[in-house]
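Ticket #4471: structure export looks truncated?
Reporter: QA, pipeline team
Priority: medium

Steps to reproduce: submit the single chain below to the structure queue and open the exported record.
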Amino acid sequence: MKTLYGIQYLRALAALAVVLFHAAERSGGHFRIGAAGVDVFFVISGFIMWTMSERRPVTPLRFLVDRLQRIAPSYWIVTAIMIGGAVAGLFPNMRLTAGHILGSLLFIPIRSPSNGEIWPVLVQGWTLNFEMFFYVLFAASLFLPRRFRLAGMIGVFAAFVIAGAIFHPQSSMLATYTRPIILEFVAGAILGRLWLSGSIPGSGLGLALVIASLSGFAAIEIFGLEFNEITCGPLAIALVLGMVSIERGGKLPEIPPLTYLGNSSYSIYLWHTLAISVIAKLVASTPIPSDVAAFIGAIAGTLLGILAYELVEKPLRNLLRNVSWRRARPSPA
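Actual output as written to the record:
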């Protein structure tokens, strides 16, 4: 499949935004809007899953296996490091229970015994609970005739959100799976369909959408406006639509460093908090200003993510790909 540079650039910028959010938070600063990188990731995920499945059809089981191979190994490694650190006393505020550990490893939303939030052991892994939920429902949609898949997904996801608005479920799983944020995946799938059908707006309107989206995110941060999926979701959708529209018009240059950061964005997302925590502890007793500490933490977190991409994610992906390929090969007979 042809590389969509706009999508790669957005993956890179979304990951860096989340890194800055956590670096500022741990340094006593403030960059709330950085957390909106998650909304952008969710829209991109829906876009990529739809375009991939349309261009390279797979069975539901093959789709889930591929997604699990892509997402789980690196996540499990970082989670194991967090568990080891907690056992060694490096995270004194972290409480561990067997149920919480098991739920974290299996992508099941469960409340943390440390603070009662619906967070896994690796806090940023809460987004992967949503991703896995989306993957399961997306795989189920592959059983439908192609012309019904998107409508079926829209109906199911909308039903979950409506049920949540009516019943306000208290269980961890239902409270997670009925949040309006899940509609961002469906919106991404709709954009994917528009992209494949050639119904994307021109580059001029695309540029206007990008500017409007970034202005909206800036307004939320500067003026302290409401920050949730209701406000950030539409802005994320506009941003992704704008970028792919610019790319469709041939107006998007190739920027290798951003493309590389897009490729390594998943590892950056998973690993960055480990480095940020170390930097926060090192500078806690120094006169270094919080903004400088946040910048150092963000750089360290990004570099650790890139290192993990090269030394962990890529080797694991190649290993698992080779194993899958060998198993799928027909016998010589």
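Status: closed, not a bug. The export was complete when the record was re-opened. Leaving a note from the reviewer for reference: The mean pLDDT is 93.
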